[in-house]
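Case study 2.
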Amino acid sequence: EFFAERVWRVRRQAPDVAELEAAVRAVRSARRPLIVAGGGVRHSGAEETLAALTAATRIPVASTQAGKGALRHDHPADVGSIGHTGTATA
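Prediction:
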């Protein structure tokens, strides 16, 4: 039926340790890091993980249109939208 609920399960692989370490080095050496939160954060249910990451790292977060709501608008790390609907802060 057209309106039947459908559920797809996506197997998630653990990240490659060397690639993860390289990403950590890149973030640590960045002068002004910024997390761009897109729709993937919302679709994967990773909003709490994003909030924990920014709390631990103090990296600001800008959201794409699809990522709106990935981080609460009143969160201290939220700098607003980025892209066509972006704000001057972002």
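Residues 34-90 form one domain.
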